Amino acid sequence: MSYPKPKISVLMSVYNGKKYLKEAIDSILNQTFRDFEFIIINDGSTDTTADILSSYSDPRLKIITNPVNLDLTKSLNIGLNLAKGEFIARQDADDLSLPNRLEKQLSFMEKNKDISLIGSWAKIIDNKGQFVKNNYSPSDSDFLKFQINFIKNPLIHSSIFFKRDILKEVKQYDKNFIYAQDFSFYSKIIRKYKISVVPQILIKYRDHAETISRTTNKLEIQRENAKKIIFENMNFYCYLDWENFSLLYKALNRQKIGLIALVKSIILWKKIFQSYLLKENLNLVQINKITPLYREKKQGIISQFIKNYFSFIYSLLKLFYRTKSSVSQSDCLN
């Protein structure tokens, strides 16, 4: 007997997530939009995650248990292969979706047929659920594409909602990235599809000590993965060897550089920008959208150099006058 396919597949992977899991699951089951399946991959959890999952009897839940811990990327790919919905929504095991999230995101996609993936604004909360700040991502597709390609990932993974059809082209998350797999995923998507952000707060993103982006060792791996992704993105438009890329990446991230590196990084950044305009064949309106971001990063490189340079000069002068004062006092004593 065949059953009708759900409109949306919600995808979650959880590993030892007992602390926030029930709250996260309930935030999906209590959505105002009801036509969805909820695929949860228990990634070899050793805490009471399995007991929490087995306490639910909602027929929309589809629970898959990995015999051992595989990692988030592999687990999400298992879920993608099982998803039957026209759209797929992500949900992390420690975040919360507001009750109208799926309804709002589906409505946005149905009104904007040219968009294939969206995120949303978010409310950042701490480990106790207390408000920290709001996160407002840009919504313009051209701006987001430029930002993802060359600067950073502006989307919160737990907020994304996309057409399942794009998987025919993108396939799945890159298994080579244990962390920042979402950044890699978006980078592939934007080469063929338009993305956007619903300018409304639709999720609560929990920023706590156990979050991947906050754990020191995992954070270092995530940063290194992000660097590799931007390297691949830049090389899609303009060839850079690793040495020149690393120099530019350092400058764009406002790290300390010398005068020669400053000049070289500005030239490289201009080269990347011009190659991007040429390959994307952007019109004037699109160019005007991303040019301020290009200029902002260029000015950031220069201002950081000036700050570092004058800080160094100031330190030398301070040391000089301190030494001079010390010598003068010594002379007086003699």
From TrEMBL:
Name of the protein: Glycosyltransferase 2-like domain-containing protein
Species of the source: Candidatus Liptonbacteria bacterium RIFOXYB1_FULL_36_10
Pfam family, one: Glycos_transf_2
SUPFAM superfamilies associated with the record: Nucleotide-diphospho-sugar transferases (SSF53448)
Every Glycosyltransferase 2-like domain range: 9-170
InterPro entries hit by this protein: Glyco_trans_2-like, Glycosyltransf_2, Nucleotide-diphossugar_trans
